[in-house]
Amino acid sequence: MTYARVGNAVSKEHQVLTLETGKLSWRMIECGVPHFPHSNSVCINGVLYYKAKLNGSCLTGDMMIMSFDVRSEKYSLIKVMEPFIDAVRHATTLVNYNGKLASIRESECSYFRRENTSFEMWVLNDLMVQAYLQTASDVGGGDVTGGVFLHCVGVTDSNEVVLANHSLDGPFYVFYYCLESETIRRVEIQGLGAFRGFRVYTFVDHVEDVKLLKGVLGL
After folding, report:
1. Distance CA 154, CA 164 (A)
2. 173-213 pLDDT, tens per residue?
3. Distance between CA 102 and CA 33 in Å, rounded?
4. DSSP letter string, 61-112
5. What residue ranges carry the coiled-coil annotation (predicted)?
6. Which of 42, 135, 168, 184, by CA, is between 20 and 30 Å from 155?
7. Cα separation of 104 and 83, whole Å?
8. Could you read off the pLDDT of 117-164 as tens digits, one per residue?
9. How many Cβ atoms from other residues are within 10 Å of residue 27's Cβ?
10. What does the DSSP assignment read for 123-163?
C-alpha cells in the first residue's frame, strides 16, 4: 500500500499492490479520511492498523489510528480520545496482543534501560466502543538490559514483549519479557560482527516466502 505525499500535507490518494503469481497490479483505492501514515503498523486477522496524522500535516496533525481491511480494501478511523491519547503518541508501538490491537509505551522516556524498565500497555477491547485498558509492567530491575537502549518491536503469539536495540554496537541481544510470568530472557544473535555500527531492524513473526502471505493475512 502506498500514499501520495505533497510536502508535509496529508494524503487523499492511496494505492494497493496485489501480489499474484507472475503479475503485479497497482490500482487506486478510495479513502474517505485524508491522513498521513505515521510510524509502525501491525496486521491482525487481515486488518492492517497504523498510526496516522489527521487535520493538518504530518508535522502538526492529530495522531489517530487508521485501519485497512485487506479483504474489503476499506479504510476505517479509530479515534482515540482523552484520557487514552497517550496510546498513540510518537514513542508508542502498535502490537498484536491476544488477537487484539494494543499499544505499548516505555514509561517516562522512549526506551528501556537500567534506569527505566517499566512500560504501559493499552488494549483495544471493542472496536465499536473504542475503550482502552491500561496496564503497567516492569521488565525487572538491576542491570538486566546491560545498559543498552532497548525498544519494543512487537509481541509474540505467546504474549512475550520483544525488546531490541536499534543499532549494532557490540553483542546483539533480543529480550523476551513474558507478560504472564513477569520474567525476562535474553537471546544473543550471533554472526553480526561485520555489521557493527549499522542500524538494526527487528521483526516479529517474520515470513520468508511471500507465497505464505495468503495464510498470514487470513485470505
Report:
1. 10
2. 888 888 888 788 888 888 888 888 888 888 887 666 655 55
3. 22
4. SEEEEEEEETTTTEEEEE---TTSGGGGSTT-EEEEETTEEEEEEESSSSSB
5. none
6. 168
7. 15
8. 677 788 887 654 445 555 556 665 555 666 677 888 888 888 888 888
9. 9
10. EE--TTTT-EEEEEEE--STTTTTT--BEEEEE-TT-EEEE
Percentages helix, strand, coil for the chain (3-state, rounded to 5) are 5, 50, 45
**Which of 105-112's residues contact partners 24+ apart within 8 Å by CB, and which partners?**
106/151, 106/152, 107/136, 110/151, 111/149, 111/150, 111/151, 112/139, 112/145, 112/149, 112/150, 112/151, 112/152, 112/163
| Cell 544473543 found at | 188
Q: In angstroms, what CA-CA distances link 141 with 95, 161, 187?
A: 24, 16, 18
Q: Which of 57, 51, 46 is nearest to 79 (CA)?
A: 51
Domain boundaries, the chain: 1-79, 80-206
Within the chain, what is the greatest distance between any pair of CA atoms?
Answer: 53
